[in-house]
Amino acid sequence: xxxxxxxxxxxxxxxxxxxxxxxxxxxxxxxxxxxxxxxxxxxxxxxxxxxxxxxxxxxxxxxxxxxxxxxxxxxxxxxxxxxxxxxxxxxxxxxxxxxxxxxxxxxxxxxxxxxxxxxxxxxxxxxxxxxxxxxxxxxxxxxxxxxxxxxxxxxxxxxxxxxxxxxxxxxxxxxxxxxxxxxxxxxxxxxxxxxxxxxxxxxxxxxxxxxxxxxxxxxxxxxxxxxxxxxxxxxxxxxxxxxxxxxxxxxxxxxxxxxxxxxxxxxxxxxxxxxxxxxxxxxxxxxxxxxxxxxxxxxxxxxxxxxxxxxxxxxxxxxxxxxxxxxxxxxxxxxxxxxxxxxxxxxxxxxxxxxxxxxxxxxxxxxxxxxxxxxxxxxxxxxxxxxxxxxxxxxxxxxxxxxxxxxxxxxxxxxxxxxxxxx
Length: 423
Ligand SMILES: Cc1cc2nc3c(=O)[nH]c(=O)nc-3n(C[C@H](O)[C@H](O)[C@H](O)COP(=O)(O)OP(=O)(O)OC[C@H]3O[C@@H](n4cnc5c(N)ncnc54)[C@H](O)[C@@H]3O)c2cc1C
What we know:
The protein is of the alpha/beta class. The chain has one domain (about 5-410): FAD/NAD(P)-binding domain, CATH 3.50.50.60. About 30% of the residues lie in helices and about 20% in strands. Helix 1 (about 35-45) runs parallel beside helix 5 and helix 2 packs across helix 3. The protein binds flavin-adenine dinucleotide.
């Protein structure tokens, strides 16, 4: 069993070299995932001298190892957003999530990125009737205020989405879908370089030093200077920027891929090739591979860190319970990555002490991260199109969190108990 992402078989992230620029960059971006690369692409196309640093390789973080599912659901739901921010602002925030899907489609088309984009839709099956009711309530609010091609389907009506009995129905979306995440990040890297961005990796940004006309960042190769700085480190930032470390925390997620299966078997499990995410607190997400020969599933398998084989066994058990027909199939790949959350469970974009940041997509950043990278780039340029409905939403800290998410196992145990007993 391989412990690298299955996606890397087709598009493995690779180092880009460590030659530092000999002049001051207009913008220095820390983090070479979808956020940082998308920002770099926008800035370079607008004639800026852009440098991107990645501690490992572009696409090494979540961007090269995620499920590749493109979606637009925000964790609080439209009803939650309206409750917190009022109808106008709540709807405006939601519309940006919808816009992020249009954005990723057009960026992939404009840059000619070959990444198996397939907008076959998504299905969110309800595990319990009360999940269905909660989902239906938010669906009705979305129908009232927004125009989204989606529908609720009952327990007997989801055969076209997934061949797994026992769900209580669910939400079917028609305008979302999936892509090959590592091909997408590789394509973005190439597009940013083509537009003139300099990408330096592996090279870790170690410290930010303020200068009269901008910033310097200390690295093992020396200092890099820039007029503006964007932090796009998501769930991999560690203690590099303490303001974010206290407000954005990493949550691990693990995925498995099965061995190659017969195309007919995979097609029978996913008749319309939709991406599936269930409604558990400790949710599972699963999909066919783009070539239709494997099944991939992700979740958080263990409360405490465990070796890959243990995690793979646990996820395989989940997969078998969803698809008994896969009991004989073996697991070919298991890998993990960090998802970034903040305490409001909302993506965040802004500026602190003159330093821009965009991150915290709560496991739904495939579309949103590129969109926020683009918006962050426009903000840096002072372009009014950089405004978003997320601007100025509070990014809160907690007195009990200082960079070590000790509370996650406690929360996970609570979630598991709730999933088990259904409350
Ligand atoms: C297993 C898994 C499954 C997921 N599935 C989905 C899905 O199906 N759909 C969806 O929408 N979202 C999914 N996500 C989330 C999605 O992948 C992320 O929201 C998105 O990739 C975030 O991109 P990013 O560029 O902000 O961060 P990342 O891609 O994580 O990039 C951050 C980069 O910063 C670099 N870095 C960190 N510190 C430094 C430093 N000091 N100096 C230099 N570089 C540094 C890291 O090396 C890393 O490459 C998943 C995530 C994981 C882990």
